[in-house]
Amino acid sequence: MTETETFSSKQGNQTCLLLSAALRFSIPYTSRQNKTENQLVNVPVSPDVKVSGHCNSTVLQDLTLYFYNSWKLRFVFVSTSSTGGSPGSSILGYTLDNVTLTYEENPLIFYNSYTTTTGPVRTVSSKSFETPLKATANGHYHCDSTMEITFTDGVKLEVKDLRFQAFRRSESGDFSGDVSTCDALSQKQRHYTVYVIVALGVVAIIAIIVVVGVMAMKKRKRNSYQHME
Q1: Quick one: pLDDT at residue 129?
Q2: Per-residue pLDDT tens over the stretch 164-200
Q3: Where are the transmembrane segments (predicted)?
Q4: Long-range pairs of 116-125 with CB within 8 A, sequence gap ≥ 24
Q5: Closest CA relative to residue 42, chosen from 70, 68, 8
Q6: Burial 177-195 (b: 16+ CB within 10 A, else e)
Q7: Cβ proximity of 39 and 108 under 8 Å
């Protein structure tokens, strides 16, 4: 993967959107051997990527990355407010709502593709995230582990060290405010809890088998004593 890169969108002299990550796609395609394979494609870093964004709305904002001539990666952020986004309402927080990729199958990138010409433009979008990627108002989100976002048509996006901040107004280009982190640790803890429960269940079953076996053995011994008498 490429190094972590910070992308930003400005409105005047103020930075309104920040996103930092290392991004790599896994995109299925048909190879020359007529098999479905996956091509790894890195999202490049500056100066090979252009950035635009829309920050006028207090309900929805987006950040779009342009690269490889016709490729476009769009991140959409949606806010939650005290009165449903009506004028004058205060923002309570926001989430990364969806991610969309527009791309074309270029043989310079898909080097083993069955076609030697550039394919049609395709658009895929992210499915629902396993856990909400959200932050509080005036704060930012950070996940220092690597996550995988699943798109339609089997496309996957590997995201390393994701950090973002939307709905902000600051001349500084640095992330600020409270930090909302991913629950990678809690997921591990949940998995550990499942393992412990399964292990305890196995131990309990073994204990029951042993107790039943001992009781059966004692019963056979009593029966043998009675026959001897």
Answers
A1: 84
A2: 999 998 999 999 999 999 874 444 444 444 444 555 5
A3: 192-216
A4: 121/70, 122/153, 124/100, 124/151, 124/152, 124/153, 124/155, 125/98, 125/99, 125/100, 125/101, 125/151, 125/152
A5: 68
A6: eeebebeeeeeeeeeeeee
A7: no
**Residues in the chain, how many?**
229
Residue of 13, 144, 159 whose CA lies nearest to 73: 159
Determine how β-strand 179-181 pairs with β-strand 140-150: parallel
Q: Strand pairing partners for 67? A: 71
Question: How deeply is 101 buried, as exposed, middle or buried, from its count of CB atoms within 10 A (0-12, 13-18, 19+)?
Answer: buried
Instruction: Please report, as a single letter, which amino acid is at residue 69.
Output: N
The pLDDT tens digits of the residues spanning 147-171 come to 999 999 999 999 999 999 999 989 9
